[in-house]
Design goal:
The protein is α/β, with parallel strands linked by helices. 42% of the residues lie in helices and 18% in strands. It binds adenosine-5'-diphosphate and magnesium ion.
């Protein structure tokens, strides 16, 4: 199977929120594995009232020698039920230093295991730069979905970062919001195809992230509706890609 890496080039456009909203709307009957591989630290455990352990740090300690799907499975946590897919999370530690050390310790091996995991895999790689220990996860994946806001600064950073890193996977953009530029304008300026868009929806984002109350009814918000559609597009894309690979 193949996996999708989510990342940003600059700032905080909403990568982790997108990962969480994809998880919350992933289609019923599928199995999703969400990997928090942001070298700046994880956020999902605290946002979803989970423990940080087991997670990336315990996996790095346990997987120092052998890392396979079974070992990975022992360090995952169930994401709170949302009536959709079965979602398991590898939470990252809050502290950046711990996250970077863990990712570096897993270098070469986490990517390899993720390629073999059955089911769908999404990896939150945080902000990408040349020194990021998450870069090898991006390169091992099928698709890098670069998340950005439709403004000049984000477009500029996305295009220069892509030129500098030239990822070995397919690359597309996910645009958060529609102002001041349209998603098509943004994709054209970055020079990468548009994967999809999600709206700027501060209320749903804050609720999803546990910043304000209201997780009930959240699935009807514009953010989650758009995420559901984006998730379906990603699944179709990966299935097509796998079929093409199988056909040689
Ligand atoms: N689609 C969105 N609409 C409005 N606000 C958002 C959206 N996505 C994220 N945010 C807000 O932006 C901030 C950063 O989000 P986060 O997902 O942590 O960004 P990143 O992972 O890129 O650093 C949070 O306060 C979050 O609520
Ligand atoms: Mg993040």
């Amino acid at each position: 199977m193949s996996f999708v890496a989510l990342a940003s080039a600059k700032g905080s456009p909403g990568v982790t929120t997108l990962a969480a909203s994809l998880a919350a709307t992933w289609p019923v009957g599928r199995e999703l594995l969400l990997i928090e591989a942001d070298p700046a630290g994880g956020a999902l455990a605290s946002r979803f009232d989970l423990r940080a352990d087991p997670g990336l740090v315990s996996l790095a300690a346990a997987g120092r020698r052998d890392l396979d799907e079974e070992v990975l499975g022992q360090h995952l946590q169930q994401m709170p039920g949302n009536g959709s897919a079965t979602v398991r999370l590898l939470p990252g530690p809050v502290a950046a230093e711990q996250a970077s050390v863990a990712l570096s310790a897993l270098r070469g091996r986490l990517a390899e295991v993720l390629e073999r995991v059955p089911g769908d895999v999404i990896v939150d790689c945080g902000r990408l730069d040349a020194g990021s220990p998450a870069l090898e996860l991006v390169n091992a994946g099928t698709l890098l979905a670069l998340v950005l806001r439709p403004n000049v600064a984000d477009v500029h950073h996305a295009s220069t970062r892509l030129a500098a890193l030239s990822p070995r996977c397919l690359v597309g953009v996910v645009v958060v919001g529609d102002r001041p530029y349209s998603a098509d304008e943004v994709a054209a300026a970055v020079g990468a195809p548009l994967i999809g868009t999600v709206p700027a929806d501060p209320r749903a984002a804050a609720a999803l992230n546990g910043e304000v109350g209201m997780r009930r009814g959240i699935e009807r918000t514009p953010l989650l509706r758009a995420s559901r559609k984006l998730g379906e597009q990603l699944i179709d894309f990966l299935a097509m890609n796998d079929a093409l690979k199988a056909a040689g």
